[in-house]
What does this fold into?
Amino acid sequence: MTLSWASIFRMGLVQLCLGAIVVLTTSTLNRLMVVELSLPAVLPGLLVGLHYGIQITRPSWGYKSDTGGHRTRYIIGGMASLGLGAFLAALAVTLFETGFAVALALSVVAYGLIGVGVAASGTSLLALLATATHPRRRAAAATITWVMMICGIILTSITVGAAIDPYSHAVLLKVVAVVCGSAVALTTLAISGIESRHVVAAESESLPLRQGLAEVWAEPRARRFTLFIFLSMTAYFMQELILEPYAGLVFALTPGQTTTLSGMQNGGVLAGMLLVGLASTGFGLGSLRLWVIAGCVGSAVALLAIAAVGVLGLPALLQPAVIGLGLFNGMFAVAAIGSMMALAGEGRGAREGTRMGLWGASQAIAAGIGGLTGAAAADLMRALTDDAGAFGAVFSFEAALFVVAAGMAAQIIDGAGHRISTNMVPGE
It folds into this structure.
């Protein structure tokens, strides 16, 4: 029995919860450490890099889904780990002023829990989708859950942005506690009972994880796509840890205003995803390769615009440029999802979870490297020039990486085929 649309929507609520908690750690807490506490940007960069680094375990979680296992407990347990980690990370922020060593040690533990939580919950959820969803609905299921994750990020960014102004440590802890507690409760209600009603066939032969990964890596298309994901996601995540500090340092925006700006960016991501879906399903416009290239090139142009408004002192153009970045990021993301879902079922059978785990690990490593590199480069450039010029240089380098990624997409992704079908979005 395959997943119904109602079950897919319920699983999308889990993704919504993941996005709601993660955005607190990558945007709000990061900005507070850099701007309010005057800590070097490389510190939150290292912490976020830690949680992404731990996600190298994603192939293991995906492989477990291929050989059978209790995914529901991994999903709920992972969300609980994520929620606890996020609250401890917020608590650590409030301690940096009085005890740096204690706060740093607590932060390491917190971001370790966040990494474990995202890897266990996110990968197990996607593996269940890949194996329990009818093949014709897989791409649609992936898109639904991704859109809901973006919605969670947007809602949290806007709500938290309004709730924490005027800022105080006490208000921060209350808001984070409510978000994390609600996410764990909603996840438990949403996922409970779904797995027990859907029998997912386990692979009869049980190979060691290393051998399973070797089989997937031996597939040329899977290997090349893994490398593409790494480069493109490095570019995608380089601005993640520096955009809010940039807005705070260069344009003197408050914590609430920069959190809201992050919400606007993710609103653009959602609009970009919907644009690609509507254009391709309603009018049959564009192949996956075209949309990926357009998203990469457009993201590069938007990043150059964000850099320019700081250097030229044009604060009124910051929001449009950030929303534009989100729009093109969304176009790239949904086309990449389409490619990923199309490729997940190719090659040796019963390896969907392993492939998704491999690409998820590639994305996580790229996100950690990209975020850390962006933060470290911003610190270095700020020692050499003014804030606007320093951040602008990093945004410009990120734009160059997107251009290179567009060139890779032109060579790797099919242009004639692999169009985004009507099954990519709800409405079948």
